[in-house]
Amino acid sequence: MNLEIILHAGLATGTILLFAAIGEIFAERAGILNLGVEGMMLLGAMAGFSTSLATNNAWLGLVTAVLAGGVLSLAHGLVTIHFQADQVVSGLSLTFLGTGLALVFGEGLTGQTPPLIPSFDIPGLAAIPFIGPVFFENHSLLVYVGYLFTPLAWYYINRTRPGMHLRAVGEKPSAADTMGINVYRLRYFYVFVGGCLAGLAGATISLAVSPGWYSDQTTSGQGWIAVGLVIFAQWDPLKAALGGYLFGALRRGILDLQGPALLLGMTNPLYINSNFSFFLKMTPYILTILALVLGSRAAMKKRLGAPAALGVPYIRGERGL
Amino acid sequence: MSETPYAVEMKDIVIRFPGVLANDHVNLTLKQGEIHALLGENGAGKSTLMNALAGLYKPASGIMRVFGETVNFNSPKDAIARGIGMVHQHFMLVPTQTVTENILLGLNEPRFFMKLAEYDQKILALQDQFGLRVDPTAKVWQLSVGEQQRVEILKTLYRGAQILIMDEPTAVLAPQEIDELMKTMRSMVDQGKSIIFISHKLHEVTAVADRVTVLRKGKVTAEGHSMEGLTKRDLARLMVGRGVIFAVEKKPQEPGDVVLSVKDVEAENDKGVPALRKLSLEVRAGEILGIAAIAGNGQSELAEVVTGLRPCTGSVKINGKEVANKPPIVAIKQGMAHVPEDRTGVGSAPNMTITENTIMKCYRENPIGNGWSINFTNARQRARTLKEKYDILAPSVRTMARKLSGGNLQKVILAREISAQPQLMVAVQPTRGLDVGAIESIQTLLLEQREAGTAVLLISEEMEELLALSDRIAVISDGRIMGIVDADKADINEIGLMMTGTAVPAKSMEAAG
Ligand SMILES: Nc1ncnc2c1ncn2[C@@H]1O[C@H](COP(=O)(O)OP(=O)(O)OP(=O)(O)O)[C@@H](O)[C@H]1O
Ligand SMILES: [Mg+2]
């Protein structure tokens, strides 16, 4: 068990959750709950992978993945913003739609090797002991993008004018409307942003962090974890990134516990039989649920958290919000 | 024709909602530099007309001119650009954002980075100009309603509004705050602005308005009438279409046994600060005990403690049975009825029908329910009877509660509570925001309850209402009883002093409790 390796892997796989969760934060901050993250991610992963394969260009693959997630999310926008249908139902359907499309178009992609997004060291920083090898050595470009993107997303939401409008639309759409903000347009826009980021998260899997196409095992439920992470993070990008990295590290750490290898100098007490390893594989998911329960209780006490108009369609003149 | 064009001209405005003709060929003119009152019963169409002027609704037909130019608003942005600002009946503020953020909402300036500190200064300067004080860095949820309203006014002034629409700005304000608002309005008019002022409080209208337009059921009954010589009575007649008695009649009557007894009660408010401090009082059958207090001095918490909605220490007995810290059903079984302050959040279920809202207290018993299922035929029949008896105006008993006007919703709540034949009624701000006609009927209902032998705890911020309805008035300040006076011997100045926490060694006072 090597802490350096675990943390390094945690940052890499955590980047997937980071993009997906921050994308969902944008949508939810605007008042639209999108449970279709898993579907958008899988579609993004497939679209990125196959485009990169077909064009021999990983960058084109990346762009396609982002657009695929974004375009799919517009379906959710149309249903929930324009037709004011139930957001939970529409989001769930979106997952089925995205997963279905990805599996059909992803037929036969398994085992192929397209060009990937490059990995590299950050010169200078990589030389710092411990920090260097964990944060700045042999990571995919997308991991470094994640480092920069997180604080920027936080700053955008909390400290800029468009960010203020975003928050207003999710907290009190009627107030935004009476001040001349186009509530519908903004909500569409941020649902689209969320979709694009979910697509990016998909490409982060298939073209960077754990490259390949393994049909629905590619995302293996990480879209759902991202949705949960948003609540745990109380709609804050910084906490979402932190949670994503922690979850990534946890998954990698558990991998180590599954083998019969030596653990801190003694034989692994958790290893009983290789057939029982699925119990250990469950642990990160169980921990996610625990963290969610504890996190949301703390949030409730402090009255932090959910945007007031989350999940509620806005209709001008209707009493209430 | 005239040398100075009107600030606003609205001609033949028609606005429809599904099943409702809210504005039926309405005309309204606003002169530059005047305060123009817009009156009408609940649901007459005042807010609808003003929402059209603010760019929220598009009239089906009609012409609008602003400073002589014909306008056609597609969004509130267009109206704001023409110098129109509206303070809405229900505040349009984002609670989680600061005062400055709320004021800047929707503007293109600042372009990208917020630079809040810089704008805080600008807003302080604007506050100086109009004498509207509020901390620009505070979050809106931390503010009192009076302060929130100042933010709403500052929002319009910051955009350089020349025409201000104020939709019932005084409904939620305490008397001192109303005086201040009137001053602000006059100062704004002095600086060349024009104001449309909506209120149900006719004395405010006679005090401040230059002209008046009255709506009744979507039609104009008085168009730009000069206020000169008009009395409250004339205005009421124009609004309601009949004479209104301003003083309901209270018959002399001996109170019976003690129904509600509150002893040494202490409770905290939502912020965890003590709100009630060793408070004791009694209400007898056939008596109305009024509670006079400045907003936020524990009166809301008192109502919640008695109705079982807030934990406390001490004892609360209804007909001798302890109900403190027990679920509300215990008090309800002792004959407690509650007309809460928050009509849509506590008093009714807005997305349920009138029928469903009226059976919420009796669905357990025959003939409405048998414990398992609800007989909706009987329920609707009962709702129809109540609708008739309490004169509730609505298309049918299947209408959803949220579609009702304020006065009619309050009548639904009272119908439900009174039909349970209560022994104790807790009524909090029962006439807030209602028109003169509705106030008259609600007050009459309360007096009928008194005559029927119900003990009534009446919490109100309207001093006139307290004096007219109560037998005794308990004055509360900072969670303590400052004194209890007989309503017919009460001295308003004395009560006012006690409300601010000054002890008055008066002759008309009895011992508390
Ligand atoms: N969004 C809406 N959809 C349907 N009907 C509406 C809507 N808004 C208002 N109405 C109806 O239009 C009529 C006029 O309502 P409006 O709110 O303008 O009355 P008001 O004069 O402002 O009353 P109040 O004094 O209670 O504020 C009422 O019958 C109301 O039920
Ligand atoms: Mg109104």
Layout of secondary structure:
The complex is a heterodimer of chains A (321) and B (513).
Chain A: H1 3-29, H2 37-55, H3 58-82, H4 87-105, E1 119-120, H5 131-135, E2 139-140, H6 141-159, H7 161-171, H8 173-178, H9 183-209, H10 222-232, H11 237-258, E3 262-263, E4 266-267, H12 277-301
Antiparallel strand pairs in A: 1-2, 3-4
Chain B: E1 8-17, E2 20-30, E3 35-40, H1 46-53, E4 61-66, E5 69-71, H2 76-81, E6 84-87, H3 99-104, H4 116-130, H5 145-158, E7 163-167, H6 175-190, E8 194-198, H7 202-208, E9 211-216, E10 219-226, H8 232-240, E11 258-268, E12 274-284, E13 288-292, H9 299-306, E14 313-318, E15 321-322, H10 328-333, E16 336-339, H11 343-347, H12 354-358, H13 376-389, H14 406-419, E17 424-428, H15 436-451, E18 455-459, H16 463-469, E19 472-477, E20 480-486, H17 492-499, E21 509-510
Bound molecules: adenosine-5'-triphosphate and magnesium ion.
How large, in whole angstroms, is the Cα Rg of chain B?
A: 24 Å
Order of helices and strands of chain A: HHHHEHEHHHHHHEEH
Measured by DSSP, the beta-strand proportion of chain A falls in under 5%
Shape field of chain B: globular
Query: Rough shape of chain A?
Result: globular
For this structure, the quaternary state is heterodimer
Count of individual beta strands of chain B: 21
- Examine the secondary-structure arrangement and name the CATH architecture of the largest domain in chain B: 3-Layer(aba) Sandwich
DSSP summary: helix tally of chain B: 17
CATH topology of the largest domain in chain B: Rossmann fold
Instruction: Please report the total strand number of chain A as a whole number.
Output: 4
Number of folding domains of chain A? 1
In short:
Chain A has 321 residues and is mainly alpha-helical. Chain A has one domain (3-246): ABC transporter involved in vitamin B12 uptake, BtuC.
Task: Describe what this molecule looks like in 3D.
- The complex is a heterodimer of chains A (321) and B (513).
- By secondary structure, chain A is mostly helical.
- Chain A has one domain: ABC transporter involved in vitamin B12 uptake, BtuC, CATH 1.10.3470.
- Chain A is 67% helix and 2% strand.
- Chain A has helices at 3-29, 37-55, 58-82, 87-105, 131-135, 141-159, 161-171, 173-178, 183-209, 222-232, 237-258, 277-301; strands spanning 119-120, 139-140, 262-263, 266-267.
- A two-stranded antiparallel ribbon of chain A has the order 1-2.
- In chain A, strand 3 and strand 4 (266-267) form a beta hairpin.
- In chain A, helix 3 (58-82) packs antiparallel against helix 4 and helix 3 packs antiparallel against helix 9 (183-209).
- By secondary structure, chain B is an alpha/beta fold.
- Chain B has three domains: 8-240, Rossmann fold (3-Layer(aba) Sandwich); 245-335 and 422-513, Rossmann fold (3-Layer(aba) Sandwich), CATH 3.40.50; 350-420, no CATH class.
- In chain B, 32% of the residues lie in helices and 25% in strands.
- Chain B is built from 17 helices and 21 strands.
- Chain B has helices spanning 46-53, 76-81, 99-104, 116-130, 145-158, 175-190, 202-208, 232-240, 299-306, 328-333, 343-347, 354-358, 376-389, 406-419, 436-451, 463-469, 492-499, and strands spanning 8-17, 20-30, 35-40, 61-66, 69-71, 84-87, 163-167, 194-198, 211-216, 219-226, 258-268, 274-284, 288-292, 313-318, 321-322, 336-339, 424-428, 455-459, 472-477, 480-486, 509-510.
- In chain B, the strands form four sheets. Chain B has a seven-stranded mixed sheet with strand order 16-17-18-13-19-20-21, with helices on both faces. A six-stranded mixed sheet of chain B has the order 6-7-8-3-9-10, sandwiched between helices.
- In chain B, strand 14 and strand 15 (321-322) form a beta hairpin.
- In chain B, helix 14 (406-419) runs parallel beside helix 15.
- The longest helix of chain B is centred in the middle third of the chain and has 16 residues, at 175-190.
- Chain B is globular and about 70 Å long.
- Mean pLDDT of chain B is 91; it is low at 507-513.
- At the A-B interface, helix 7 and helix 8 of A face helix 2 and helix 3 of B.
- The site of adenosine-5'-triphosphate has 15 residues of chain B, from strand 2 and helix 1.
